[in-house]
Amino acid sequence: MLKITISMKNFLVKQLIIAPLLLCLCLAVCGQEEEMTAEKMLAIFSMKFEIAAPDATFTATEQGWEEETTRAKLVCSALPAPYERVLADFMEITMPDDIKLISKDTMSVNGLAGYLMVTEATPPADEPEQEHFYGIMYIRSWDKLSTLNINAVYPKSQHERLYQKMLATFATVRKKED
Question: 34, exposed or middle or buried, with CB in 10 Å at 0-12, 13-18, 19+?
């Protein structure tokens, strides 16, 4: 089992990087893929995606969307490993003590099968003013050599308002054309 420990003062920063970090762990096995070269890996990492805003309260960022008032974020990227490999690594992840697994299951978006994990992050004891945050991590195959990775983070108090909106945006992902 893989165990990740991140010690950070800023709770929100921790929540924003934990999901992509967990999924990037698949890179350790990328060297085992005969077809994956360093050049191909860099090309996949540099892919840019368009994704619809969850609603009009969000403003665009380089990788997705952010709602300033709640600090909710939505980002999309690609990982340089086949979906099956990323999914296998994803299943081996052990969450840090301050992140509780709420649910995990397969999910289809626009007829494409993927895997969804929902987590709840507890703020550290020394930041009692911080709210609990939910994280949504969704992966699905992009092509033979890469996996689409969509991550959303939002305050627990916004779950009723944002959860379905975040999921709906997953179906809107398109690769940006240069």
Answer: exposed
Radius of gyration of the CA atoms of the chain, in A: 16
pLDDT tens, position by position, 19-32: 444 444 444 444 44
How far apart are alpha carbons 105 and 172 in whole angstroms? 20
> Which two three-digit tokens encode residue 34?
């005969």
In this structure, the chain runs to a length of: 178
CA 82 to chain centre: 16
Token digits of residue 45: 């990492």
DSSP lists the bridge partners of residue 152 as 74, 136
DSSP assignment letter at 31: G
Give CA–CA dist 175/178, Å, rounded: 9
Kindly tell me the sign of the dihedral angle through the C-alpha atoms of 4, 8, 12, 17: negative
Phi and psi torsions of 160, nearest 5°: -60, -35
Q: What is the largest CA-CA distance in the chain?
A: 49
Query: Is 34 a residue whose pLDDT tops 90?
Result: no
Tell me the sheet residues that pair with 135: 119, 153
**91 class by beta-carbon count within 10 Å (0-12 exposed, 13-18 middle, 19+ buried):** exposed
Task: State which amino acid sits at residue 126.
Answer: D
Decide if pLDDT at 149 tops 70.
Answer: yes
